[in-house]
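Progress note, sequence design subtask.
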């Protein structure tokens, strides 16, 4: 049995929102108020104006008890003590909102916000609230205990905040179809922190971030969303501040082509799934264990935008119209241990700059970088060099004991791994008439060559792989003879 004992002074007070867990637990009130109550769902509201000891609220059953207490005069006049097995004591709540009269202190969220001060928490009981609420700095706004995850407190209007401090919003469902759900504007530093919230908006943005202070920020953590319409963007921002998305899922049941649209914002996406893609204009973005899907380009960069991605996946869910990435020569991607899939060839549309380490394709294994400028990064693990391999505009990837080779036709290439290796070169032959391919391996810079493929006659593009065993510090050379048009489309050197 859990017993809560209230010892108020002589002020008039309300004791409300007593929640017994599990629902259906019988609560009894003894003392000056007298009389047992068996509430529906384990909830009881108590009012009194008696001085001295009101008495005890006893929960019979094995569940924890949670209680909110409010005083219409001075909450500091209420002292709470507990005896028995106190499993959960939430504390003193001066601001409780309920759409039903006499079930809270306020019937609108805005009225509670107007009355509250920095550091206060506003508890919102189950119900639908069609309000456009202007928030104040320092407030915590949360669903009352027992509301469940993002289910029972529904905001069909929205919240607006102009900075000047921090606000925290927890366990609220936003389903507006006529205005942006979260608006963070103004020119003063501040932060909006959203936790365990759910967004399902049809004709508007879920988050609209235009605060002009570079030290402002929005954090979205453990949230879910669904773009159930095809008009809005889940997030629009032209703020120079920061946007962080952690452990969240943004769905796209409305077949929405509108990407998350950010301008000049510093972006951090971690352990999250985004089903609408990213459109980044002059942004600096960091992605860690992110999954970015889109019906269009998974990521589109403009005006000097940069993306740094680790252990992330990028998928264009259209195989006919869009590439996976797009951008111009002012933009750059850096990939470490990342995968891409879907889209048309080339997967990189535009002459953006690409740096990579272990970038892999999830279906056919070929990545066509088009006109992008591509270089590889190198990671060292002991004496093993781990990187993907690059040559020309198309490259393939290999496990961690490979390096990028740079063999050119007719020029000797040396194995500098200090270990024997297998050199594989992919020759793209576009046309040939009685052409031949020659190869030589030896310790000198001019190894003796011999014909390995002869009498090649082709009228269309074919890929011919050439693999040779290359001892440590030996040289290899590959050349052609006869009438043959050939380029190197990919190559790799792997320790054996």
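Output:
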């Amino acid at each position: 049995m859990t017993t809560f004992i209230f010892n108020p002074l002589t002020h008039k007070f309300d004791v409300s929102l007593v929640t017994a867990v599990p629902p259906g637990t019988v609560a009894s009130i003894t003392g000056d108020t007298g009389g047992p109550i068996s509430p529906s769902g384990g909830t009881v509201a108590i009012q009194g104006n008696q001085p001295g000891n009101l008495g005890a609220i006893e929960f019979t059953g094995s569940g924890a008890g949670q209680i909110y207490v409010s005083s219409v005069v001075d909450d500091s006049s209420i002292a709470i003590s507990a005896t028995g097995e106190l499993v959960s004591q939430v504390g003193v709540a001066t601001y409780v909102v309920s759409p039903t009269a006499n079930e809270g202190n306020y019937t609108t969220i805005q009225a509670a916000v107007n009355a509250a001060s920095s550091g206060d928490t506003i508890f919102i009981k189950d119900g639908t609230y069609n309000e456009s609420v202007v928030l104040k700095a320092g407030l915590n706004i949360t669903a009352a205990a027992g509301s469940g995850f993002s289910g029972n407190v529904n905001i069909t209007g929205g919240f607006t905040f102009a900075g000047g401090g921090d606000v925290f919003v927890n366990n609220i469902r936003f389903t507006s179809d006529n205005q942006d759900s979260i608006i963070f504007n103004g020119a003063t530093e501040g932060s909006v922190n959203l936790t365990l919230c759910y967004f399902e908006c049809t004709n508007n943005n879920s988050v609209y971030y235009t605060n002009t202070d570079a030290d402002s920020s929005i954090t979205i953590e453990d949230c879910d969303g669904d773009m159930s319409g095809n008009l809005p963007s889940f997030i629009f921002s032209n703020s120079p501040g920061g946007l962080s998305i952690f452990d969240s899922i943004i769905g796209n049941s409305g077949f929405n082509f509108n990407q998350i649209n950010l301008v000049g914002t510093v972006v951090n996406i971690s352990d999250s799934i985004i089903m609408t893609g990213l459109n980044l204009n002059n942004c600096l973005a960091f992605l860690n264990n992110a999954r970015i899907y889109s019906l269009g380009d998974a990521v589109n960069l403009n005006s000097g935008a940069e993306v740094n991605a680790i252990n992330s996946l990028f998928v264009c869910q259209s195989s006919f119209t869009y590439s996976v990435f797009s951008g111009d020569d002012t933009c750059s991607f850096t990939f470490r241990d990342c995968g891409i899939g879907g889209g048309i060839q080339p997967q990189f549309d535009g002459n953006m700059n690409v740096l990579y380490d272990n970038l892999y394709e999830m279906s056919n294994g070929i990545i066509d970088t088009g006109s992008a400028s591509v270089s590889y990064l190198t990671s060292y693990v002991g004496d093993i060099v781990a990187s993907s391999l690059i040559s020309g505009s198309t490259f393939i990837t290999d496990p961690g004991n490979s390096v990028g080779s740079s063999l050119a036709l007719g020029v000797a290439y040396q194995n500098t791994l200090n270990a024997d290796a297998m050199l594989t070169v992919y020759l793209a032959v576009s046309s040939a008439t009685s052409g031949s391919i020659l190869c030589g391996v030896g310790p000198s810079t001019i190894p003796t060559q011999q014909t390995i493929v002869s009498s090649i006659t082709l009228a269309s593009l074919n890929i011919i792989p050439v693999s040779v065993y290359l001892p440590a510090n030996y040289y290899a050379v590959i050349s052609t003879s006869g009438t043959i048009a050939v380029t190197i489309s990919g190559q790799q050197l792997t320790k054996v």
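The two ends are 70 Å apart (CA to CA). Work on this subtask will continue into the next period as scheduled.
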